[in-house]
Amino acid sequence: MKTTSGPVVVWFRDDLRIADNPALLAALSSQSPVIGLYILDQESAGIRPLGGAAQWWLHHSLAALSSDLAHLNIELVLRRGVAASEVNEVIANTGASAVFWNRRYGGPERAIDTEIKKCLIDNGVEAESFAASLLFEPWAIRTHNGELYSVFTPFWRACTSLPEPRLPLPAPHNTSHPTNFTELPSLSLDGLGLLPRGPDWTSGLRESWQVGEAHAQRTLHEFLRDDLRNYPSDREVPSVAGTSRLSPYLRWGQISPYQVWHAAMDAQRQREVPSEAVQCFLRELGWREFAWHTLYHFPDLATKNWRSNFDNFPWPNNREDLLRAWQQGRTGIPLVDAGMRELWRTGWMHNRVRMITASFLTKNLLIDWRAGEQWFWDTLVDAETASNPFNWQWVAG
Questions:
Q1: What share of the chain is helix, strand, coil (3-state, %, to 5)?
Q2: How many whole angstroms separate alpha carbon 85 and alpha carbon 238?
Q3: Catalytic: 326?
Q4: What is the number of alpha carbons within 13 Å of residue 338 lying toward its C-beta?
Q5: Is 287 a catalytic residue?
Q6: pLDDT tens digits along 193-209
Q7: How far apart are CA 296 and CA 206, in angstroms?
Q8: Which end of the chain has fewer CB atoms surrounding its CB within 10 Å, N or C?
């Protein structure tokens, strides 16, 4: 990494961590002052506004990240607005000579990043992106005919035939040079407006979760120690705490898939856990990859049928009362209602119950999968641009 003449901006997005963060490590290696930047962009074309539960998680994630960055002498600047405008304004105010970020894979996000990168380079500002949130880049996994995989098993076989994913990068120990940009505008965390301003419905979230990178690592460690051995059977039983509960930490990048992969493989190599259990768990990482690869090639996954032959499916009208009963856990089906009430209370639901509730909505109540996907988007702390619509389309058939 070359030494730059001005400060370096690290633009955080869905990678709210210090360890295994290649953009942050590259910035620190530049020997220049480092500025952390987070932009709440819900205005750029195609960007989907966050749901309420996700906003709650993001608020507390940014608080944890800001604290962690402070130990590295890095200020986290908070902005809200169109990303391209906000990035340009930060550069104008600081004279930054480089902007680093970790890649995003949704269609609108890629378009934004491509435009910003071109603009920066055209204006003499270094811009570089890094792989940090997926084990395998979407353009690297294709069939022998160069097409997108549409079935998971051959997709995952192709992934695991490649060299093992890279080792996680260490947490940085060197600190940034002090910055003197006291006039650089930054919103307060409360100023981002992520928490509910009316009735506070988040007490169940607060009771259920501890947010931040340190809690992500502890959750992983406890799962590998206590639950991974029995994961293949326990993950099927909603009444058993047999899953990892890592999904919101992965969604917000407070832990990376590289860290999860190698921690699980280390458990296998040390013969602490049967290989069958480890491989079963890693396939769940693979399913997440499959969703993101699908979104990369089909950006309208949340609004259009992946299989176009369902475009004319005759969803009945006047289902608002049934939809509301499903949302509120009043269908009369105990497992469905328990799952939906858990979702509202905790922002999370066991994967098997997600499948059951989604199947009930689409196949029993005959309600368009998009209505269910939108409800999950608003109520899940782990609602992800790829996995949420992908799983709904998969359950809906």
A1: 50, 5, 45
A2: 46
A3: no
A4: 9
A5: yes
A6: 999 988 999 999 999 99
A7: 33
A8: C
